[in-house]
Amino acid sequence: MSSQLALEKVAVRYGSFTAVSGVSLSLEAGEIGCLLGPSGCGKTTLLRAIAGFEPVSEGHINLRGHTISQPGGLLPPEQRRVGMVFQDFALFPHLSVRRNIGFGLSALGAGERQARVQEMLELVALADYADAYPHELSGGQQQRVALARALAPAPEILLLDEPFSSLDSELREQLAGEVRELLKRNGVTAILVTHDQHEAFAMADRIALLRSGRVAQLDTPYNLYHNPASEFVAEFIGQGNIVSVTVNEAGELNDGLGRLDMGHRHWRAGEQLRLLVRPDDIEFDELSQLSLAVCGKSFRGAHYLYDLQLPDGQHAPCLAPSHVDVAVGGHLPVRFNLQHVVVFDAAENAAT
Ligand SMILES: Nc1ncnc2c1ncn2[C@@H]1O[C@H](COP(=O)(O)OP(=O)(O)OP(=O)(O)O)[C@@H](O)[C@H]1O
């Protein structure tokens, strides 16, 4: 079975500048993918290439087995069965919700169009707002109109360009989860662009983390977090500090930080490693011999996120229950819990 969408070694250039290169990824029907990465890494460029707004200079893009982009050959955007939801939703302010949703359906007869609009209104739970105008709706409702409008012509793939960025940050993750449910229920294949990993995690089945126009890792949200392929991925995804340690033959780390228990690894005495220490790898333990200086703390509701200083001056984060309230400058007794810690070879900068 061929993929719904397949990119094969795609490169996009702006003049002599290569914005994206060597990007291969595919999505099965009904799968939700995400292009994630820092500003300027090429996310929008790739989305525009899939939509047909940018030509590819190398490689090709296939949609349901048909090549829609290759060097020198580009199926125009209006002939691709691609739906788009833009950052600002791009609704027509002078048209009602009903007419916004029906806008791309001019090829249908009046009866069919009306039925399809009604179906879309129900899909996004806005049937009661059919005659309202965009300015009368909340941000989340406007986004659902944009989604309904993009889905109305039954595209083969839906492209979402930072679809939550104009919404209140409190709402974003919740909406990302809701949109995911809606797309999943309807078997829609989609690609989301975002620089926010929480949105990516809440919405995507698989994420391509981009760095300087290349895929740094293409993986599930779980693996990106727990098995990052490089320090770049580790540092981009989630909180954590990279800490350099020396390990002895027994797997013990310097300064009494604990013991590595990674079964398959045989440590060499004196070996230098770099650990990705996440806030939940260090636990408050009032009986511990190891007390670390508190350099900073921030309140997170049920927890404090502490910034701790290790004996050799490096920093590490610790998430402790918020009743454990130690002032900056004080000391927090902790235990390293290294069962799941990610280990990088100091020399290779790649996870082992
Ligand atoms: N039309 C253009 N002409 C020349 N260079 C461009 C053009 N559009 C984008 N670029 C460059 O290509 C690179 C990738 O840009 P792109 O907009 O795809 O990144 P992005 O990951 O979407 O960033 P952001 O999150 O800031 O939107 C950047 O270095 C950018 O400056």
Summarize the structure.
It is globular and about 75 Å long. Strand 4 and strand 5 form a beta hairpin.
Describe this structure in words.
The chain is 22% helix and 33% strand. It has helices spanning 43-51, 97-102, 110-123, 139-151, 169-185, 197-203, 221-226, 231-236, and strands spanning 5-14, 17-27, 32-36, 58-63, 66-70, 73-74, 82-85, 157-161, 190-194, 206-211, 214-219, 241-247, 271-277, 282-284, 291-299, 303-309, 315-321, 331-336, 342-345. It is an alpha+beta fold and 352 residues long. It has 2 domains: 30-52 and 71-231, Rossmann fold; 241-345, Beta Barrel (OB fold (Dihydrolipoamide Acetyltransferase, E2P)). GO terms for molecular function: ATP binding; ATP hydrolysis activity; transmembrane transporter activity.
